[in-house]
Amino acid sequence: MAEPSQEDVDSFLSFCEIVTGRRPDPKFAPRYIKDANGDLDRAISNFEQDPNRYAADKYDETLFSQDRDGGSNQYAGIPSFQIDHANESLSQYPQSTAATRPNTPSNNAGAGQETGVVGASGVQFGPATREYYEQNQWAMTTISSTVPDPPPSQRKREPGEPAFMKPLPSQDYLPSLITILNTIPMSHNALLMKNHLLPHYGQDPQWWTGNPIAVAQTIDLDDVRQEDGRTEIIHETQRIMAFLDYTDRAYGSVEPLNKIEGSVGDTEAVRFLDAWQAAASQIEPGAGHDKLFETTAREILSGEVSSASFKCLMPILSNRGADGPASLYDVLDETIWSNDLDGSKDVQASISSLAEVLVMVVKQPDSTATGLNMTIPSSWYVDRYMAQNETKAKQMRRACAEKKKELADIEAQTQRYSRFHHNGTSGSSLDLLEVAMSAMTMQPLSPTGDPMPNPNAERDARLHQKIQSVYDRVKRKLEVLKAQEEEARKAYDELSGLLKEPKEGVEANPTVKYRLCGISSDPAVTYIQSRRKFDVDESMDESVAVGNGDAARTSTDWWRIHYDSTGQISKSRISEVDALAAAAMENREVLLVYASEEALNERFADVPQALAEFVSGDNMLFREELVQDVEQPPPYDGSGSVGGDEDAGFANMSAKEWYGDEQQKQPEMAERGAGLVAEMASAASRGRETDADAAMTDAGGPASQHIEFADGK
After folding, report:
1. Which segment of the chain is annotated as a signal peptide (predicted)?
2. Residue 690 or 116, more confident
3. pTM, whole model, 2 decimals?
4. Cα distance between residue 457 and residue 443, in whole Å
5. Minimal CB count within 10 Å: which of 112, 538, 563, 625?
């Protein structure tokens, strides 16, 4: 990461002082920011947890003047030994003598020794009282920087299941993003880049784990670095697309992509999108690669035009208070129109060009929230944000702001009429009036409980009538306010629904539709649609093929893929409804990938021959892994004593010597074993028709039968 700006450093110092009450040393501020990848919140959290993180890196001269126990050394400055040299005033040198050594301070070392927790300023262990701890800081040693792999038998792709890219140790969304992009026809075909192929793509038995493949090429030495950077990311992406299409492995790794030098971005996923687009646009200029992932937003402020392009939109949900879950439109409204939400400013904001594949990461900053607190739509229309609808959108925002103000006024009046406040207590006004009216009609009782005449009956009746009148007036007012609120809210919903979905009888309906293609609710959890959803074949259910909404939402066209921290893989087919609900509840951050109808209407391109051969070769390497895994003997169980007398001679003892005594005790078992060997040899000579398992079955019963030499059972 580049050096942080002075503005970031100043912000870090100021916020640290506000949050922690301590101001960091300015010379360490850039290190905190760089180690947090520019995330000021994380940098502040790191300083709060360990304010002295980098102070220990300084050279401490005082350590050399301390004794062996860390205390002060009264003999500091005295050399451990000294050699007497000749007196220069003497004409003759004396004989050499042994070096003299001063008395050692060992008898005086006890005063500086401590027991228990040594040094009050050091880091001490205690109860975990903070709400959040950096994962890579709380442990005494850093957790493994790799994601474990299961044995080969558990890494086999089952028929009909999708392949995927396993999570990165950095917990970035890049693997999930690549997996999802492979299921979208336009991005799949673009990333294959069939017009720029290698004659062969090399081979490496460990490529699937993240080892890059170096392929010998004829290069121009004048442009070697630039050409390498462009072609390397293109060719590695081609390998991954072909791999996801035809591999026999359950998963692969995007580590080779992560090791390629690209642009500087906030995340590895963004860096990949930036680097791939730059390389593809240079290799195939004019092919439209810059339209695949890049969206451009434009803002006109007081006549001055500015624009910004992004490949991953990262909106942050605002605090909605008691309101229900936000919609995707709510999130995008607050992001795109953040400088003019009420339409009252001299600001025009819109999207001037939109990516065919729209990538976004939505975050919920409220740590107390359960999940994302946002509804994830299966499809939405982008028309309201486009430049051609800029005027309509501004009018809509202005009208919505007026309705919001009207709703706020109605809510304030409703609170004033419906609630009472007295001496620090509050409650329902109607309930209080009902209690008061009930008290006015109560019959007085004698000490014995018998009814008595009410001497204040006339007064109570008048009071009851007045209270009843107030009660009726308040109730009518609340009913009127409720009707006004319903009317205003209906009007607000109609206004805010501008170009959200097609409606009958409306002059202008939205036309630019985007469909959800993939979700990642966690870097280890990915939801993708089956590719048959886009590439319809004859075996596909007709109701789904023609776009029947209910059938599509209940059919199991979605896959949930989970790769946990222990290397366990789970894949399950789920419905769209379940996928959307689970993704909204599993985490407070989610990756969403939407694609335009044009991107989905393409047909998946066939993998070129050179890439097909690469995947075929990798599949052969995987089959060798499976064979070796089956043939590999079980690991040695190191339990019991090692190196004892009873182990003497075992290292050079043959199997015959080891089992010799037992065979004498079990002649029947020895005879059966010899028969098995003979049968297996005979079976081998007869050819491939009869295998060793059949021979074992013929010789000694079921193939599962085994020989135990220990006790003869």
Report:
1. none
2. 116
3. 0.66
4. 9
5. 538
